[in-house]
């Protein structure tokens, strides 16, 4: 989400040492030295570029995701919609307290049927792009079980959606035709 264009990998690792020697932070600093996992100047540029539009993208993606989650929660081809912005989500109260600018652009749906049915729905989408990423300006769809493999604990029928900046009605229409 910080970069917004599916072309950046970055993050921060913050630790609080529990012992007097600082062994964990020392070990992580040593690993960083060996692995060289520092952000390059170009990646830093991409991050700054993305941060300039983060709040506008976050607001739009959150609103669209909420609209989709509400519409999809009534869809007869689905057994469940997982989105913290829905009152039916088990962590909704916590999300409401912590997420003051919207509930984000990620949601999951459970398709009525098996893994083959869920995979078929993901493949029939035309506006949604089949890819493993999140937080970009384009909307992405993936059947998680196919990505994670047979030993995954993810339900067979789960489809993960990363909402981009497209029109909510276009995204919903595409999901409707894929679920039909």
Describe the protein's architecture and organization.
The structure is a single chain. Helix content is 43%, strand content 12%. It is built from 7 helices and 5 strands, in the order H-H-H-E-H-E-H-E-E-H-E-H. It has a 5-stranded mixed β-sheet. Helix 5 crosses helix 7.
What keywords describe this structure?
5 strands, globular, 180 residues, alpha+beta, 7 helices
Short description:
The protein is 43% helix and 12% strand. It is of the alpha+beta class and 180 residues long.
Blueprint (SSEs and pairs):
Blueprint: H1 23-35, H2 41-51, H3 54-72, E1 78-82, H4 92-98, E2 106-111, H5 115-124, E3 129-130, E4 140-143, H6 144-148, E5 158-162, H7 168-179
Parallel strand pairs: 3-4
Antiparallel strand pairs: 1-2, 2-5, 4-5
Helix pairs in contact: 5-7
How big is the Rg? 19 Å
Residue stretches low in confidence (pLDDT < 50, at least 5 long) are none
Q: Widest sheet: strand order?
A: 1-2-5-4-3
Task: Tell the overall outline.
Answer: globular
Per DSSP, the total helix count is 7
Largest beta-sheet characterization: 5 strands, mixed
* Count of β-strands: 5
N-to-C SSE string, H for helix and E for strand: HHHEHEHEEHEH
Measured as a percent range, the helix fraction is 40-55%
